[in-house]
User: Fold Nudix hydrolase domain-containing protein from Urochloa decumbens.
Amino acid sequence: MLLPLLRSHPLLHHAARLSSPRTRLLLRRDALPLPLARSPSHPPIRMAASSGSNASSSAPLPPPPAVVHKSKIRFCPACGSPTKLAIPDGDEKMRAICSSCGRVHYENPKMVVGCLVEHDNKVLLCRRKIEPAYGLWTLPAGYLEVGESTAEGASRETLEEACADVEIVSPFAQLDIPLIGQSYIIFRARLKTPNFSPGPESLECALFALDDIPFDSLAFSSIIVTLRMYTEDVKSGSIKFHYCTINKRLGASPSDLRSFDIDSHIAV
Assistant:
């Protein structure tokens, strides 16, 4: 059962480490070995802000700039009146406040869920038929719906995008992307039957051996990080649960391979 698994998972014993605002554990050599990072087909996860930079890839990147979120709520969902940006009493952030009824409208991060489907020592990838990142490869994943658990949402997305009926094995990774207000939860899963085919949002689906994963044609930073961590785990003979924060460069496209750095990496 997934619930007992989550309750007993050793990640829960590391909650204190994650709760500290000073926690900033940069990805260490032992967390993602350098042989993978140096491989021509696997650009390093820690990347320079510009592909034309002459700086050494080992040089530390500057800390990401503080991002002040500007609400996109222009009109009050309750009464339709225009909103204004202001700091409500007792708050410390700018919020969208209705100019008529005074309601405060909050915007919260979105949860994205998906599956890393394992079959015959290969992983299942889908090539996107929609924007963003049309034509690039990704794990089957999408936004969590109200009324479903993260595991249920990950299974549903896999069925929708790859027509694959899967069984959840275990949680594999949680990846936070503060700049775009998203948090990913990726589960390991296996096919109940060896059948899959492209769904409405996929051009094609295929199983890839680890050495054949098209890292230069992956759709999102979250997918790149997930698959690199998984590849290293499998090759080391120990699959772990991973947590990290992905710091994206402001204004970078979703498929820009040189647009992000990762922090606070914990593997248990």
In short: Residues 1-58 have pLDDT under 50 and may be disordered. The first helix runs from residue 2 to 8. The radius of gyration is 20 Å. Helices lie at 2-8, 15-19, 34-38, 150-162, 221-236.
